[in-house]
Amino acid sequence: MASRRAAEGMIEAGRVTVNGAVASLGDSADDELDVIALDGKPIPAAMKTVTIMLHKPAGYVTTMSDEQGRRTVKDLCADVGVRVYPVGRLDLNSSGLLLMTSDGALAEKLTHPSHEIDKRYRVTVRGDVAKALPVLRAPAMLDGYLTKPAQVRLLRENPYGTVLEMVIHEGRNRQIRRICEKAELKVVGLCRIAIGELRLGELPSGKWRHLTEEELAYLHAAGKEEQYGY
After folding, report:
1. Is 34 one of the catalytic residues?
2. How far is CA 63 from CA 43, 84, 88, 204, in A?
3. pLDDT, tens digit, 9 for 90 and up, residues 3-55
4. Rounded to whole angstroms, how far apart are CA atoms 36 and 23?
5. What count of other Cβ atoms lies within 10 Å of the Cβ of residue 13?
6. DSSP 61
7. Which of 124, 127, 119, 212 is nearest to 170 (CA)?
8. In this predicted model, what pLDDT tens digit does every residue of 109-136 receive, in sequence order?
9. What gap in Å lies between CA 76 and CA 112, rounded to an integer?
10. Catalytic: which of 30, 66, 91, 128?
């Protein structure tokens, strides 16, 4: 129904009640046992969270609105039926697997700094790759933070450049591009093909699909493992 910040605003404004009592931030409720209402109208208990996988094309920003009038991932998910929000980000010129969800708790788990699920990318670069490989595979200092070493594998050459497969853990802002810049490589194409066990597969660019029950179970389990340090 709303983002977490907007929902907190509704609660602070006294618009949310639980079993007839005005709710406060920090209160708990069970949507299967309690009557939760917004502006006096009960929220249906059957309202389920939705999590999808989107194949984001290059040229779309990973936001729900944009002050510069650029196309957003919201435009690609207008037919989902509920409002879903991006989990993490892909920059404007990158494409590939982007998770979007209406489940705020799941999104918070997956974007928490302690949650370092592997993210796999296919990166096309130009430059001296042989010289760059040691730099690409070494820890990198970004914004005062030393990243873990990336896993880098040379896949093939094509007319556009050299195709690498890179696996990173933290997902710092523009991490792949900044590492490649340090290695004096120019990125001409970047696509995220997997997040942990979730694979982009044959999902067409610009399209989305619901996650399977198995994929959802994996994400919830992964978030729990990171939360409790297992």
Report:
1. no
2. 26, 11, 10, 20
3. 778 889 999 999 999 999 999 999 988 776 788 999 998 886 555 789 999 99
4. 9
5. 10
6. B
7. 119
8. 888 766 778 999 999 999 999 999 999 9
9. 25
10. 91
- Helix residue ranges per DSSP H, the chain: 4-12, 73-76, 104-111, 129-136, 175-182, 213-228
153 burial type by CB count under 10 A (0-12 exposed, 13-18 middle, 19+ buried): exposed
pTM score, two decimals? Answer: 0.77
Cα–Cα distances (Å) from 220 to 177, 225, 226, 227, in that order, read: 29, 9, 10, 10
Q: Tell me the CB-side half-sphere exposure of residue 57, using CA atoms within 13 A.
A: 11
Look up tokens 């991932």; give the residue.
73
CA neighbor of 73 nearest in space, from 87, 81, 110: 87
CA–CA separation, 230 and 206 (whole Å): 36
